[in-house]
């Protein structure tokens, strides 16, 4: 098997992609990847509490809505 790395510019993605971040968590769930929390890059508010889902079948980003009280910080968390 030969694997080839591709940059985001080479992939045809749609939807609302997340902002650049680090120290975040990612988890594969069925045919999707869930990205959550982390620290925002170049921001006055460094912690991200947003949650995104990437549907792997069609490479579509979806920003998920949280229910209940939002957590102020999600970083280096695991599912």
In short:
This protein is mainly β and 79 residues long. Helix content is 0%, strand content 33%.
Question: Notable features of this structure?
Answer:
about 80 residues; mainly beta; 5-stranded mixed β-sheet; two-stranded antiparallel ribbon; 7 strands; globular
Tell me what you see in this structure.
A hairpin with a 4-residue loop joins strand 6 (51-55) and strand 7. Helices cover 0% and strands 33% of the residues. It starts with 13 loop residues before the first strand and ends in a 15-residue tail after the last strand. By secondary structure, it is an all-beta fold. 11% of the residues are buried. The strands form two sheets. The protein has a five-stranded mixed β-sheet with strand order 1-7-6-4-3, with no helix packed on it.
């Amino acid at each position: 098997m030969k694997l080839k790395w591709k940059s985001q510019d080479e992939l045809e993605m749609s939807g609302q992609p997340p902002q650049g971040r680090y120290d975040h968590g990612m988890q594969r769930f069925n045919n999707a990847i869930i990205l959550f929390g982390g620290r925002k890059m170049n921001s006055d508010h460094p912690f991200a509490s947003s949650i995104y889902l990437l549907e792997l079948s069609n490479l579509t980003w979806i920003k998920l809505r949280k229910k209940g009280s939002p957590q102020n910080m999600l970083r280096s968390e695991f599912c």
